[in-house]
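# step 3/5: fold
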Amino acid sequence: MLEKIDLSRTVEKEIYKKVQQEEGAKLGQLQRRLKDAGIPVLILFEGMGAAGKGTQINRLIQALDPRGFDVYASNQPTEEENLRPFLWKFWTLTPENGRIAIYDRSWYRKVLVDRFDKVTKKKELPEAFRDICSFEKQLSDGGAVIIKLFLYISQEEQKKRFKKLEKSVETRWHVNDSDWERNRNYEEYLQINEEMLERTDTEFAPWTIIEATDRNYAAMKIIKTVTERLERALTEKEAKKVMKKVNSGISLDAGSRYQNGVLSGVDLSKKLTKEEYKEKLDKLQRRLEILHSDIYRLRIPVVLGFEGWDAGGKGGAIKRLTSHMDPRGYQVCPTASPNDIEKKHHYLWRFWNKVPKAGHVAIFDRTWYGRVMVERIEGFCTEDDWKRAYQEINEMEAHMANAGAVVLKFWLHIDKDEQERRFKERMEIPEKQWKITDEDWRNREKWDQYEIAVNEMLVRTSTTYAPWIVVEGNNKYYARVKVLQTVVEALEEKIRQVKAENK
């Protein structure tokens, strides 16, 4: 594919200057319009070593207001980054709505440099490509514009530039042994790049090949590509405004296929006596204490999500779960309504920021499933948004699991009568009154709608790598023990797997 690219393309200096001036003025205006429209923009610079990524980034940003963009250089991953899923870093660096993020190399390192260096194993490539494409699609579906630029030069041109860089003390550091290794094996590395381009050139995030031998020609093509893509994005945004429709609530008729779903078959009569509870609780907590040390030593990340009816017992279950765990090795992440900063990002951004390091545990009290429950029912997102979310969530959880994480999700289930009893108890006991709000009572009025949404959620997002566990919660003793038992068994199984792989 790339061998057909004409690398001899040049442009006269005067023409270049004229185009840069005209397109630069246009780009500055577009940046302001993008800010007003709340459109986030990601511009990626990938390509062959010494192709001029840094130079071209510098030329592009001259037309931009520096207060509205950020530039990120992706070099060798840090120790912190290596302890997390490879996309974690880039999720945290996605721009706010209305801002531009420019990447000097990006998440493609995983399937390019790391692949060439054998850091990324051949068996890992299919998952890596899927993760990258799903990442870009999620951002695109969320309203982001993704512009991917591949700067291409020949082997001889690259060799010439490496030698020039090495002649100067000021620029010598730009070239290392790995760069020369890729130059010596240019054809092999070129094939790796070509496969990447073919597998990730999508309608929502297409690649543009930049003939980069002539730096002026490259700069001219880059700025014209960027302005054209941004103009199109603004036009499409205006068109979508007319079509955008937010649903409010759930029709019982429309949701009838889930009306008598998973929850209707749950046996809420299950219970434990106080004596049985104390005995089982003590054994499980002591076992979990040991397992917590094991997962730290073996670098196994753990993600536990808790959802359930208001007053379903999430807090009590989490408290018993963590009582014997080392507080340095876990974090409880309560999820409230998104704040002003979180609202400016993709809805999954705030959860990606809390993905645990290898060997650590993240416990979410309410989760990313708010998109398909409260946001769906209350009309805080469009119908397209919540329908798309099932796949987005499955992909996010798959990426965590691919990185070695144990992912478990608990639905704490109680019946309507038990909820009412607990609500009244909270109102009557002074030290518990803070737990009950007017919103809890309002949500209770929509019980039937929530039940339909929960049933659909359980069916569509319970997977082998991130299963839902419905916890019979009318009896708090039984619920707490079941949560602990499930976590203990899952960790034991994962530890056996890791030890077997390490033999």
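# step 4/5: annotate
Residues 2-243 form a domain with the Rossmann fold fold (CATH 3.40.50.300).
# step 5/5: archive (pending)
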